Amino acid sequence: MGARCSNLCFCLWPSNIKSHVLYTSDIEKWAENEQLNLPAFREYGLEELKAATSTFSVNNIVSEHGEKAPNVVFKGQLDGNGRWIAIKRFHSSAWPDSRQFLDEAKAVGQLRSKRLANLLGCCCEGDERLLVAEFMPHETLSKHLFHWDNQPLKWAMRLRVALYLAQALDYCSSKGRELYHDLNSYRVLFDQDCDPRLSCFGLMKNSRDGKSYSTNLAFTPPEYLKTGKVTPESVVYSFGALLLDLLSGKHIPPSHALDLIRGKNFLMLIDSCLEGHFSNDDGSELVQLASRCLQHEPHDRPNVKSLLTSLTSLQKEKDAPSHVLMSIARETTSPSQVPLTPLGEACSRLDLTAIHDILEKAGYKEDEGIANELSFQMWANQIQETLNSRKSGDSAFRDKNFTTAIKCYTEFLEGGNVKSPTVLARRSLCYLMSDKPQEALADAMQAQVQFSNWPTAFYLQAAALFTLGMDSDARETLKDGSSLDFRRMKQ
């Protein structure tokens, strides 16, 4: 994770904002992948959608606002191809003019982006007005921010959410769809890979003449309260409110947040679960970016391109898959069908001798950046004694003297500022060899923190979990390790 910061001291004046460059290669790489394997927009028959949703059964409602919401979202499955879909059913009086509804839906349906939960079609039969979109299986940002069960959303994942949303808005703007109605944490969905996507439903109003905002007035752009119209600057204001959600893990009214920022009492904004997982600079920039988006005057807010530039430079753990950052196992991915590597196999059958041989042969090839830092500190005569501890640990590890190896590796890890995922992995195995699976699991998890896309860390976690009798969790962790191996093979 990021640098530890126990005493945040943010500097929030505009003159101190860093100047960032949005690298052209990053934009091109994203644009190259914009082609998606999706069908063209089409009109669905009402009976087809009834069959897909068991006649709009209450059991198929997936919108978090519940059955009594004016416009309800259902989950369904098409008979023809088995594709899962999300169906938004409007109130009967929402769009009396079917042609107007169809034209609006067709315009939104022309968009195709991996940053959107794309619109696949619509239905206009009788009084029915329905939109059909891609189904996102891993729920909403609201669920993962405010109602999490196992762990809070990681800092790196929160930054990724912000970037992907900015990319989605930028894409929509480039296609002439600058306006997004009621941007909030319910509109952000997670696909099968746990990548965040922006719901296409917000590109249409809730009704022809209805309100564009359904949330509490405290979160509504001030100019909308005066004119009742949404502008591109209004969307940026709502984006700023979303940044506050990501920072705080709470739904804080923008006016209250701005008062805290102006009063230099912004520590109250930061989610306590994030303490120690981000740097002063990163936290300062995100708070400042949110405050700029929430300026009362629309012309004082940044545009989407500016947001994209700032957020691109803040990204952490870029190579880690989203499902790994969110600790969610992918249910249907090709990596799960790929045979495990020798290390994965050894961990799956708890062959500790084989694991030892593999780790010994692998050496420190995954610690290149760590090695450079150690070399510098050696040159500065800062950690010679600490480095000797690691060498003694390596010697004991090679000779299978695991008690001594644990002692020496512990001296190394506690003796300097540089952490080594390889040392943590080796000490994890030493703990397994010493019948201390809980300590082994802790080291393997710490190795993952240091190197989030390292399959070895996941495999060793699985071995520790198997030893602890947590077989189901162990198997899921093996899948995560094999997923990362699969990604490496493709590169």
UniProtKB/TrEMBL annotation:
Record-annotated Protein kinase domain positions: 59-326
Record's subcellular location: Cell membrane
Keyword Nucleotide-binding among record annotations: yes
GO molecular function annotations of the record: ATP binding; protein serine/threonine kinase activity
Keyword terms: ATP-binding, Brassinosteroid signaling pathway, Cell membrane, Kinase, Lipoprotein, Membrane, Myristate, Nucleotide-binding, Serine/threonine-protein kinase, Transferase
InterPro entries, per the entry: BSK, Kinase-like_dom_sf, Prot_kinase_dom, Ser-Thr/Tyr_kinase_cat_dom, TPR-like_helical_dom_sf, TPR_BSK1_C
GO-annotated biological processes: brassinosteroid mediated signaling pathway
Record PROSITE patterns: PROTEIN_KINASE_DOM
EC number: 2.7.11.1
EC supergroup of this enzyme: transferase
Membrane protein topology class: Lipid-anchor
Transmembrane residue ranges: none
Pfam families per the UniProt record, alphabetical: PK_Tyr_Ser-Thr, TPR_BSK1_C
Highest taxon above the source species: Eukaryota
SUPFAM superfamilies reported for this sequence: Protein kinase-like (PK-like), TPR-like
Sequence similarity: Belongs to the protein kinase superfamily. Ser/Thr protein kinase family.
Protein name according to UniProt: non-specific serine/threonine protein kinase
Species of provenance: Nicotiana sylvestris
Gene encoding the protein: LOC104219639
